[in-house]
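Problem 12. The chain below contains 303 residues. Write out its predicted structure in token notation.
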Amino acid sequence: MLHPASLLVVLVLAAASLEACCVNPFIHTDTDVAPDAPGSAARETGGTLEESRPAVQLGDRGIDAPGSGFDIRLLRVQPGVHLGTEQVCDVVAVGRLEPLELGAQEAPRTAYGPGITHRMSIQCTSTTGESWADLAFDVTRAARASEVQVGTRIRVRLARADGGFFDYPIVDFVAVVGPAPGRPSSEPSRSSGTALPAAFDLRAVQTDPGLVGSSQQCAVSHVGDIDILDAGDARRRNYPAGVQNRMTIRCRHAAGEAWADLVFMPVQARAALDVRRGQTIPVTIVARGGGFYDYPVLQYAGN
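Solution.
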């Protein structure tokens, strides 16, 4: 029979062993995926997440009027304006319809509203912008999911700015409106063969701390998705207080390109829709690192 003191030692060792074997290795770990890493949203969708053009909206013509559909990115840069409203999406890409089963999906089941039973990824286009969304169906509308096809215009209710698959905004299916209007021929070209300008070499901040706080020009060669930030995101990063949105960009210089984390204050957020490849934008250098993927942090400095 074990002495009480020996038994106590055994119990302590067993508890320590149990704790070591069962601890979640991802707690307190930055699990952000690099933009071009296998399994990232950009790789899985063939680079279609690149936000390369600004948004043009329907304006006073009415929700079902001919013309441009709604740019879902507005839900992230102006969430207080658009959450809960109904808008039209002109569909240019459709994913697989999937049932929502607790614990079986990447996005938490609780991110969706009550009664939602199915979801699919869709891409919506406006005259000058494209954006992805997570289209949710309740039990009464799931049977109509097959009607959501490329080339159709649908009406959706804007439910959440993020939280869907790939952290897409969540939009609830309302109805199929009909065929989507044709894309205008004046749509800007995305040709990768277009010559790009060069501007400030962002690598210089690593050897010259005095550049922090300075204003520079970034010649944009890549634009990632627009993210909406919460307080937790802001605390983890070297962001100025009050930041609302961010995106991953590349700045072209004479010798190549450099990655950066571009952030926007609420009053600047609408300008995030206008940042596109081939544009030269004014930025303020906020930090030499500490952004997403530990990139330098730049703040948009335009009007």
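Discussion. The CA atoms of residues 27 and 236 lie 14 Å apart. Students who got a different answer should revisit the alignment rule from Section 12.3.
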